[in-house]
Description:
Layout: E1 2-7, E2 10-16, H1 17-22, H2 27-34, H3 75-79, E3 85-88, E4 91-93
Antiparallel strand pairs: 1-2, 2-4, 3-4
Amino acid sequence: xxxxxxxxxxxxxxxxxxxxxxxxxxxxxxxxxxxxxxxxxxxxxxxxxxxxxxxxxxxxxxxxxxxxxxxxxxxxxxxxxxxxxxxxxxxxxxxxxxxxx
Length: 101
């Protein structure tokens, strides 16, 4: 089974379910997974607080839609919307900085 993660109407990560949950590569995927409640109060998880504001999907700024929320941006992020690229077997991303690669 494969999972697609979307941000503001665009796919940002596609991966096999086991790979996505154990090794998320896009910062938005990592933030989503960190927000899932754990029923055991003794288990702690790293908190991820996304900075910035969420742009509207109707009038998103040029470049990457996740740009205002993430600290690792490049000139390419500012200028163009990135393509979905396969970065490893069965994992595709729309990002220039890959987590857990």
